[in-house]
Design a protein that fits this description.
Length: 162
Amino acid sequence: MGEKAATTEYEIPPGKQEYRSTRMFDAPRELVFRAFTDPDLVQRWWGPRRLTTIIEQMEARPGGRWRYLNRDSAGHEFGFHGVYHDVVAPERIVQTFEFEGTPGHVLLQTMTFESVSGRTRLRQHAVFESVEDRDAMVQAGMEEGASESMDRLAELLAMQDL
């Protein structure tokens, strides 16, 4: 019998300006970390399948900047950007995240990569400026979009040619 497919679990407590997510990947921690810091890999899993991801800037180091674009089939672009505050390979990334469609609503995101018997537990913690900002992102489909990205990442990590 096959194992149940991995899913991303979310903790979204009411009235708080944060959320947490956890996902287990069948890949070593160094590879999962690399998938978050190598622009060639990020563009292959980040964002919904129906969109193309373009990595415009990625300086995965403390003080470095990042900017990604999602492009739909009609050529419309949706930008996201932030600043890396901490990058400790292969353990942790701390960065800001801002959707350019709603400027001024910045969140701080911490990702930790934990080795568990050759697999990797990814924990993400996002802190928003307000409960309203967090709730707006949840209402906009954050869970669905993030889960799709994590599914795509799992598929990428399963490939033999990384």
